[in-house]
């Protein structure tokens, strides 16, 4: 299995809000193990209104392991061929390792309100 997995990241940890992450940790998976890790910078401002889904898809990402995100972001990612698993926490690498071990499941819970979020959506 060869797959690129993205994790919205802040300070090495899964960012609780996809649209506010500092960067995306992209892990190259081959044969069920992490072969490489790289950083893809998050667009300035709100990731919710950026083209990050197409950027990640062009980079070969087919899976997003996230803390939380709204249903709109999930739809955009899926439209770009990126499967989404929400409800993760911990370091980006530990989350990918948990997915490889088969212990992660999508929480099915999406953001409904953003609190300090100022993207007007």
**At the fourth CATH level, what is the homologous superfamily?**
Dinitrogenase iron-molybdenum cofactor biosynthesis domain
Largest sheet: 6 strands, mixed
Radius of gyration using CA atoms only:
13 Å
- What general form does the structure show? globular
Number of strands: 6
Calculate the terminal CA-CA distance, rounded to whole Å.
37 Å
CATH architecture: 2-Layer Sandwich
Stated plainly, the CATH topology is called: Nucleotidyltransferase, domain 5
Helix/strand order, N-terminal first: EEEEHEHEH
Number of domains: 1
What's the number of helices?
Answer: 3
State the helical fraction: 10-25%
Poorly predicted regions: 113-121
What's the CATH first level?
Alpha Beta
Strand content: 25-35%
Whole-number mean pLDDT: 84
Structural class: alpha/beta
3D structure, described in words:
By secondary structure, this protein is an alpha/beta fold. It has one domain (2-100): 2-Layer Sandwich (Nucleotidyltransferase, domain 5), CATH 3.30.420. The chain has helices at residues 52-58, 71-79, 92-100; strands spanning 2-10, 13-14, 23-30, 33-41, 61-65, 83-85. The radius of gyration is 13 Å and the shape is globular.
């Amino acid at each position: 299995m060869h797959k690129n997995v993205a994790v919205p990241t802040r300070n090495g940890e899964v960012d609780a809000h996809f649209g506010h992450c500092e960067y995306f940790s992209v892990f190259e998976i081959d044969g069920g193990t992490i072969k490489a890790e790289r950083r893809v910078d998050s667009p300035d401002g709100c990731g919710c209104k950026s083209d990050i889904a197409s950027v990640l898809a062009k980079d070969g990402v087919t899976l997003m392991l996230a803390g939380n995100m709204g249903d709109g972001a999930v739809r955009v990612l899926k439209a770009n061929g990126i499967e989404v698993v929400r409800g993760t926490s911990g370091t980006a690498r530990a989350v990918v390792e948990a997915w490889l071990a088969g212990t992660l499941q999508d929480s099915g819970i999406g953001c409904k309100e953003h609190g300090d979020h100022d993207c007007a959506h």
